[in-house]
Design a protein that fits this description.
Number of strands: 0
Largest sheet: none
Distance between the termini: 44 Å
Structural class: mainly alpha
Shape: globular
Order of helices and strands: HHHHHHHHHHHHHHHHHHHHHHH
Radius of gyration: 27 Å
Length: 530
């Protein structure tokens, strides 16, 4: 039965990644596209980590700290596997939705648990291969390895995810208990991911500096790892020297915690699977009834639906996240940018244009309106059956996109304009052009979604990642950014930069008016016919 459960979960994972429709099977073209994407991501990861380990292998070998090389590899694997699987572990083990269904069948509790653990381990092994593969290749290429070292490396590679699994289960248990007591847990997950991305970009920017510090202070770092992280220390010694005793110490530290965690989870599985979250009792307090407008009610409905799924928020409003990060980056690096402007004074006249282009480019990935109709799915008849005009429904979807994207867009432009001390007239362009482009994306995306809706999705994330309307909207908006720069490149000798920007502002206003007229006429008719 365990084998069958694992096969079902593997098949489900495969279908979630490749199949986007209930009625259509996955085509060969899509399979080839997914395979190419997987190969591309693999090459990128191998290149990134390969460059990192290429910088470390020879200096650490010359310092006779080969074990530190493998210890750093182990630490990087632990960090990436932990970040990539902690929320998945919390969802799969502690908050699984199909526990009651599986428990009603003649299936052993241990088989259910092990099938879930197996899927998480597969994910960790994938992360590990992307990191350990380049590390092994660089060491063999630059230094060389004996047969016993290769065997030790393989043993460590097979068992390291077990240690990570024990740590992940413990932290995921804490996260699950915290999440049960938090009202808006999706926002917490997003904040954590934003923090991770900011740390990632920060680390990428200063990676050369940290590599040099690591090489210069290699011995002190080695001493710290030897004293504070002795399992990782013995991991490195086992691979470097083929030391059996160090391997036994490392395996003891990896296998015993994993075994204890599995034993505790198996004994507490029924309790975890059937335990219901405590609901706080709220005493009713009589208050005067407040009347809300139809538009406010529809906006509240859109907000509740949008925030109910983390993946919809992450994929639908990634531009909002990027703009928040960009705003913080501008404040952090303003002195460096000012120094560049002082060294290259001819760039100052283009500051306003660059801010506008950045504001437009960052909002291109917001596809809230271009998937809002598709997200209704087979529940579309409910909103259409209510005494609400189609125009009001479309207005709510349009306005929700603007309320999500415009404030962050304006904040970014205001901060950029203040930091670079632009004039009042320039502020009109800096705020007006990106804002009019946001309105264009909201209108164009909603029109595309009415033209190419997708209601037969299996998972809601398909609407914001793989639907035709989202693809058209995102690539069209990105194409607009390239066309803006391309056209000015050929007209720069004829039209001054400010004349071009005012013309662009006027063009966006005209296009917005035309798109809104089209939404009120054709869009309403199309919505009624869906």
């Amino acid at each position: 039965m365990l084998k069958q459960l694992i096969l079902i979960r593997l098949k489900g994972l495969f279908l979630r990644q490749t199949r986007s429709s209930k009625n259509k099977k996955t085509g060969i073209g899509k399979m080839i596209l997914m395979a190419c994407l997987f190969v591309y991501l693999t090459v990128v990861c191998f290149g990134m980590f390969g460059a990192l380990f290429y910088s470390l292998v020879e200096p650490l070998h010359l310092m006779n700290l080969d074990w530190l090389y493998f210890a750093l590899m182990g630490l990087i694997i632990i960090i990436f596997c932990f970040i990539g699987s902690v929320f998945i572990t919390e969802h799969e083990i502690y908050e699984a939705k199909d526990n009651e269904l599986l428990l009603s069948m003649p299936i052993k509790n241990s088989d259910i648990l092990l099938s879930r653990v197996f899927m998480i381990l597969i994910l960790n092994y994938i992360y590990e291969i992307l990191i350990a593969g380049p590390a092994l290749f660089m060491y063999i290429w630059k230094i060389g390895m004996s047969a016993i070292q290769v065997i030790m490396f393989v043993v460590v590679g097979l068992t390291l995810p077990l240690l990570i699994m024990a740590l992940t289960c413990l932290i995921a248990w804490i996260v699950a208990h915290i999440m049960k007591r938090v009202r808006h847990k999706n926002f917490i997950v997003i904040v954590v991911w934003i923090a991770f991305f900011m740390l990632y970009f920060y680390g990428i920017q200063y990676i050369e500096k940290y590599i040099m510090l690591l090489i210069v202070n290699g011995q002190s770092i080695a001493d710290a790892i030897q004293k504070g992280l002795f399992p990782i220390y013995h991991l490195g010694i086992a691979i470097q020297d083929g030391n059996i005793l160090s391997l036994i110490i490392y395996l003891t530290c990896a296998l015993i915690p994993f075994g204890l965690v599995m034993y505790i989870l198996s004994t507490q599985f029924i309790k975890m699977a059937t335990k219901k979250s405590k609901v706080q009792k709220i005493e009713y307090v009589e208050k005067p009834m407040e009347e809300s407008s139809m538009l406010n009610a529809l906006l509240h409905r859109e907000f509740k639906h949008f925030t109910s799924n983390v993946m919809i928020m992450m994929n639908g409003a990634i531009g909002v996240i990027l703009q928040l990060i960009a705003t913080g980056a501008l404040c952090f690096y303003v002195d460096d940018i000012q120094m560049i402007l002082q060294q290259l004074p001819f760039l100052k006249e283009y500051v306003t244009a660059v801010i506008c282009i950045l504001g437009i480019a960052l909002t291109c990935t917001n596809n809230i309106s271009s998937s809002s109709v598709s997200l209704e799915g087979d529940r579309l008849w409910i909103i259409k059956s209510l005494p609400i005009s189609s125009k009001d429904v479309l207005h709510s979807k349009l306005l929700f996109h603007l309320l999500m994207c415009l404030p962050v867009q304006i904040l970014f432009c205001l901060v950029a304009g203040i930091l670079f001390n632009i004039s009042i007239l320039d502020f009109v362009l800096v705020i007006g052009i990106p804002a009019s482009f946001v309105i264009f994306i909201a209108l164009f995306g909603l029109l595309m979604n009415l033209w190419k809706p997708k209601f037969d999705w299996i998972n809601e994330t398909v609407c914001v990642k793989q639907s035709m309307s989202v693809t058209i909207t995102v690539f069209s908006s990105m194409g607009c950014v390239f066309m803006i720069g391309f056209i000015y490149f050929y007209l720069s000798d004829i039209i001054p930069i400010y004349g071009y920007m005012y013309g662009l502002f006027a063009l966006f206003i005209v296009v917005d008016i035309l798109c809104y007229y089209l939404l009120k006429t054709w869009g309403v008719e199309k919505f009624n016919s869906l």
